[in-house]
Amino acid sequence: MRKRTRRILFIFALLVIVSPLPVYLKVILAGNAVTILALDFDEFNYQTRGMK
C-alpha cells in the first residue's frame, strides 16, 4: 500500500472516531480502517527490513 493511502486511512479512522456517529458505526468503520492499517504495517515492515 502506498504511503499516501496509509495516511488517508489513518486520517479517516481518526475522523470517524471523533465524529458524532453512533458507537456501532464508529466501531465498524474505524475498526475496518485500523485492521487494514495493521495488516499493511506488517507488510510495510517486511519490505523496509528486506531493503537493508
Task: Give a verbal description of the structure.
It is a single chain. By secondary structure, this protein is mainly α. The protein has one domain (3-51). 87% of the residues lie in helices and 0% in strands. The chain has helices spanning 3-18, 23-51. It starts with a helix and ends with a helix. The model has no long low-confidence stretch (mean pLDDT 82).
Quickly list its features.
single chain, 52 residues, 2 helices
Terminus-to-terminus distance: 19 Å
| Structural shape | elongated
Q: What is the structural class?
A: mainly alpha
Largest sheet: none
Domain count, please report it: 1
User: Treating each run of at least 4 consecutive H or I residues as one helix, how many helices?
Assistant: 2
Question: What fraction of residues sit in β-strands?
Answer: under 5%
- Count all strands and give the number: 0
The poorly predicted ranges are none
Overall pLDDT: 82
State the helicity in percent bands: over 70%
Q: Rg to the nearest angstrom?
A: 13 Å
Order of helices and strands: HH
List the topology elements.
Layout: H1 3-18, H2 23-51
Helix pairs in contact: 1-2
Briefly summarize what is shown.
The chain is mostly helical and 52 residues long.
